[in-house]
Design goal:
alpha+beta; Heat Shock Protein 90; 5-stranded mixed beta sheet; rod-shaped; ATP-binding
Length: 361
Amino acid sequence: MSLRRIAIESSIVAVALIDGVLGLYRHGAVELALTVVAALGLVLRRRWPWASVLLALPALFVVGGPTAAVIALYSLAASTSSIPVLAIAGSAVFLGLSGFWVYFASVNTTLIFAVYALMTAGGAIAIGQLQRTRHMLKSSLAALREAREHEHGRIAQEAAATERAHLAREMHDVVSNQVSLIAVQSGGLQVRSEDPTTVETARRIRTLAAATLDELRQMVLLLRDSDAPVSDLAPPPTVDRLRELLAEQDLPIESHLDLPDDLAPAIQRAVYRTVQEGLTNIRKHAPGARVRITATADAQGILVEVSNSPATEPPDEPLPSAATGHLGLAERAANLGGTLVAESLPDGSHLLRMRIPHYRR
């Protein structure tokens, strides 16, 4: 019980006790004891309101202090909607408040006392019922609010599922088919060509196309079914595959990789994607450049740097680009509590740096 609740209950008991003592018209140990019992009985009014009413009635009939009985009747009305229960308790409090058998001066006086008792007992019941209705409405509103939020969430999930299915369909119908065609044609070129350089280039294109198709398959499955078990998909990129990625490149690369084996999967994906994005941009915008790749762990966290010297060859015809690669890496870094820096230096070189906290599995 909170201090505020204790203070409120103590104040109610004190008020009932003071009213009962001041209203004593018979002075004696029995009357005083009944007054104290009636006041202390209010402590039970929230959990056992019937007990509070029963403990307050003797003092009401013998002593005449009304506060404890009225508060107990209010608590009973706030806890139940049973008409027989309220009628019995209300009638008992009404008889105790009217007190016409104790003091009867005239019909008018008795009538005034009866009206007073009826208004007091009836008012306590009415206010208690009003409080009960308020609590019920409050609970109903809370339930309706929760149901509405649940419905909004369900609608949002359905909309997201529809959009995922649409994206999966478009990726399969457009991207997957075109990448499959690239893989088929590069395979044919690899078989038909007699030039070793052409054969090696075609083999690399086919390998990259196959890897792209595999990753597209993962994304299509996840988009179509967000509950699809990840274990059924191809393994995500990890730092162990960095050396394979570097070995597939036909660029002059100097690398320094020194990362622990127990990095969290999200960090491993971020490291891999940073190196992958850096190499892709170098091939597109700085052909012939020398590349330096660093991926290390220190006390501050994980540091990944992909830098290149100025281009030594004119770039090929520019490929379509939405400039979202760095944006996606920045989002990955931010989600992991890190930062991403991409800058072009005056001599034409470029640096891509990601630093993220060192989280292990």
